[in-house]
């Protein structure tokens, strides 16, 4: 039976949505005390982040705004993320650039905003290290990722909206992606137990050599606070920019201060 003209077809929850050739994750029902748009994260314990390859960037070396697909393990798109940075900042500051990253859901609503200020990347200035703020919805901070000074290891603290430490992240001494995945362990505050992982996935020699389009996987407990899941997504993007975004000479950092 057809739908009368002028009447909208309601979206059906728990049914995958096809939009412009892309399968999106089913829309979950609203939940109390959950920021709008983060309901998707309550249903999953693993997500995949795929950076899109930019042809202009490959051909010219001209840095473009990064774009990412955020998917569940079924390959359904959960969110789409797009960097919003001006041309001068992208090409003058390179991977160290400040940025705003906007994450939208399948209704086109911006549900998470990531903001990275311009900070120092030198071990000589431990009081001005990298930081990223996570907002959900936009304008409402729900957490922060703060780099911790360490002479050899990439170390970060995940904080809630009140700046209370919730989780720790520790990466390997050498972060060069060569023939294998690179893992950043997410641990309890006292670092005695591992609760999740952020992994930079090896994508093959040609893609690694000629593009900075990276793939990541994030695992976390299904019952983790949904806001902290959003902050872990933010941590993944900060790690990508810090360690896997190619510099102007097409070289990738291999250490925490290099």
Overview of this structure, please?
The model is unreliable at 1-12 (pLDDT under 50). The chain is an alpha+beta fold. It has helices at residues 55-60, 87-93, 205-210, 226-244, and strands at residues 17-19, 22-24, 46-51, 67-71, 77-83, 99-104, 110-116, 131-135, 141-148, 155-160, 165-170, 182-188, 194-201, 215-219.
Q: Note the total helix count.
A: 4
Helix content: 10-25%
- Secondary-structure class: alpha+beta
Rg? 19 Å
Reconstruct the topology from this structure:
Layout: E1 17-19, E2 22-24, E3 46-51, H1 55-60, E4 67-71, E5 77-83, H2 87-93, E6 99-104, E7 110-116, E8 131-135, E9 141-148, E10 155-160, E11 165-170, E12 182-188, E13 194-201, H3 205-210, E14 215-219, H4 226-244
Antiparallel strand pairs: 1-2, 3-4, 3-14, 4-5, 5-6, 6-7, 7-8, 8-9, 9-10, 10-11, 11-12, 12-13, 13-14
Annotation keywords:
32% strand; globular; alpha+beta; 258 residues; single chain; 4 helices; two-stranded antiparallel sheet; 14 strands
In short:
The protein has 258 residues and is an alpha+beta fold. It is built from four helices and 14 strands.
């Amino acid at each position: 039976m057809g739908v009368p003209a002028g009447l909208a077809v309601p979206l059906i929850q728990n049914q995958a949505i096809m939009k412009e050739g892309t399968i999106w994750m089913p829309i979950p029902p609203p939940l109390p005390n959950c920021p709008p748009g983060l309901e998707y994260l309550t249903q999953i314990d693993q997500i995949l982040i795929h950076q899109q390859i930019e042809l202009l960037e490959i051909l010219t070396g001209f840095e473009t705004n990064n774009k990412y697909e955020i998917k569940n393990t079924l390959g359904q798109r959960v969110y789409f993320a797009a960097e919003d940075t001006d041309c001068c900042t992208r090409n003058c500051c390179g991977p160290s650039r400040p940025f705003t990253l906007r994450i939208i859901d399948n209704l086109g609503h911006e549900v998470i905003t990531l903001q990275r200020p311009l900070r120092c990347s030198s071990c000589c200035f431990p009081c001005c290290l990298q930081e990223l703020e996570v907002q959900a919805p936009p304008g409402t901070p729900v957490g922060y990722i703060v780099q911790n000074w360490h002479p050899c290891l990439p170390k970060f603290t995940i904080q809630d909206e009140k700046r209370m430490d919730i989780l720790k992240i520790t990466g390997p001494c050498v972060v060069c992606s060569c023939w294998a995945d690179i893992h950043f362990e997410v641990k309890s505050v006292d670092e005695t137990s591992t609760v999740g992982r952020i992994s930079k996935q090896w994508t093959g020699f040609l893609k690694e050599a000629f593009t900075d389009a990276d793939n990541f996987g994030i695992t976390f407990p299904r019952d983790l606070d949904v806001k902290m899941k959003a902050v872990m997504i933010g941590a993944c993007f900060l790690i990508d920019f810090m360690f896997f975004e190619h510099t102007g000479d097409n070289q990738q950092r291999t250490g925490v201060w290099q």
